Amino acid sequence: MNETGAAPLFTVIGDRINPGFKSTKALLESGDMAGIQALARRQVDAGAAALDFTIGPRAKDDPDFLMQVIRAVQAAVTAPICFDYPEPAVQAVCLRAYDPDRAGGAKPIINSMAETRWHMVDLLNIRPCRVMLMASERLEDGVGKPNKTAAEIAGTAKRAALRLVREHGLVPDDVIIDVSISALIADTAGMNREALAAIGLIGSDPELRGIHISGGLSNIAQQLPPKAADGSDLKLQLECAFLTLARPLGMDTVLATPWRGFRMLPEDNYVLGVFRQVLQASGTDVLRQVRKLYRR
């Protein structure tokens, strides 16, 4: 249940333990463990099933502080932690500090593995984990390349997910595919359109049944005004618009702030209608369509 008492539409991985948020950065810089614990509890109370976790670059230079923060969070909540670091050495410190007993036996989540970071699979030797897979890049002839089409995104996701299951002993429920959500104002290449199409391909693939699909919602409304042209909260409405289209296609997990109040939007919702138009645009026409979100 969330703060409103409603059952959640999605599994939410709370995103607030991250110095990208000014308030969290202040807590980390001052070493305010009580404040960090309160933030962890607030997210869980609002419905977060797991907590994304990063203290930023300090983790590489100060592993003792990193472990201190992890233990403080686990002393406050029983939700599992999603460790958000691309560096295997930092992930290793996190996984060794993690106490599954304090999370009711729940596995930690490694965020993020990718075909281009496949060496991170060795982290599974430390302890059983769930894995968040980045589907935005692939390995081709030994070279990392960005995925630009739904087929490329879904193909990479399927290849990597099945490899984790078949070669490394994960069950489908342990795999979370991260389909990257782009800032709408800069999405002249139609990457959100491709991401939604990829969600449909992944969600309808019988070989991927039981595997989860996720994305970072806060990206979509970056650098946009706070209010939509109809007076509503533009950032929240855009996040809900993406979810409204993605949920029926198979997206079941979100990396987001859990007290945002996500909901499925009705078809006559103004922001949802404009968002559909933006998805059909390309090039500079994207910017013209985006302006309709906040200008009549």
Features:
two-stranded antiparallel ribbon; single chain; 296 residues; globular
Helix percentage range: 25-40%
- Structural class comes to alpha/beta
Read across the widest sheet, the strand sequence of neighbours is: 9-8-5-4-3-2-1-10
Supply the number of structural domains.
Answer: 1
| Uncertain ranges | 1-7
At the fold tier of CATH, the topology name is: TIM Barrel
Which percent band covers the strand fraction?
15-25%
What is the element string, with H for helices and E for strands? EHHEHHEHEEEEHEHEHEHH
Give the name of the CATH superfamily. Dihydropteroate synthase-like
What is the CA-CA span between the terminal residues? 37 Å
Model description:
- The chain has 296 residues and is an alpha/beta fold.
- The chain has a single domain, classed as Dihydropteroate synthase-like (TIM Barrel).
- Helix content is 38%, strand content 16%.
- The chain contains ten helices and ten strands.
- The chain has helices spanning 22-30, 33-45, 58-61, 63-76, 88-97, 150-168, 191-203, 234-246, 270-280, 285-291; strands spanning 11-17, 48-53, 81-84, 109-113, 130-134, 137-140, 143-146, 175-178, 212-214, 253-256.
- An eight-stranded parallel β-sheet has the order 9-8-5-4-3-2-1-10.
- Strand 3, helix 5 (88-97) and strand 4 form a beta-alpha-beta unit.
